[in-house]
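Record type: monomer structure entry
Structure origin: computed from sequence
Chain ID: A
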Amino acid sequence: MEAVLRKPIRGFLLDITGVLYNSSPNSIGRAIPGSIEAVNRLYSESVVRFVSNESSESRHELANKLGKLGFKLNEEHIFTPAPVAVQYLKKNGLRPHLIVHKGAVQEFASVDQTNPNCVVMGDAEEDFTYEAMNSAFRLLHQLEDPLIVTLGFGKFYQRVDGPCLDLGGFAKALQYATDARIVTVGKPSESFFRTAIDDMGLSKDDVGLKTSHRVAISFCNIQI
């Protein structure tokens, strides 16, 4: 324990779904007992940023939802993968075929989507239909260098009605069928975490991470 806590933690990266609240298909969800008090205490004693693979709504909408659940946090402190994905697509000249939640489509409005040369996958939830997956498969199948850009790569996430299959399984299915490369721009990508850490003005060794699963990553000096 002494080796793990060899240096004081000055800041925290917190996941949102499964850590602050559990989502719901029929409502805004439910705050996890004790999470509101924990966030208030961390804000008062350290630097806090929130990292989420949430891609079914914009950062502004997510902040509003958390506010309704009772959380007091700064919208600018929330980091989600869609804006990072847009930057990646533009930088690399990629034109996406989207499999994302209808609430996230607008996030990609500034990206050229004609004659797609890659597939972007997010939390599509009920839009992960056979037709949607097969359309993506057909595109990837005809590309010389098939590429899938994922807004995260989780195995499952927690809702109030129980655990739900997450994006990773759907992406792996397409990869299996097409031998596509996968580039992840959300968690657990190290660059995604580093973006939030840089915004905190801290070094990687000053920051602890709490996600919905037990995680150990190279640039954090504790496990939670």
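Annotation 1: The chain has two domains: 11-80+188-217, 81-184.
Annotation 2: Residues 1-5, 213-224 have pLDDT under 50 and may be disordered.
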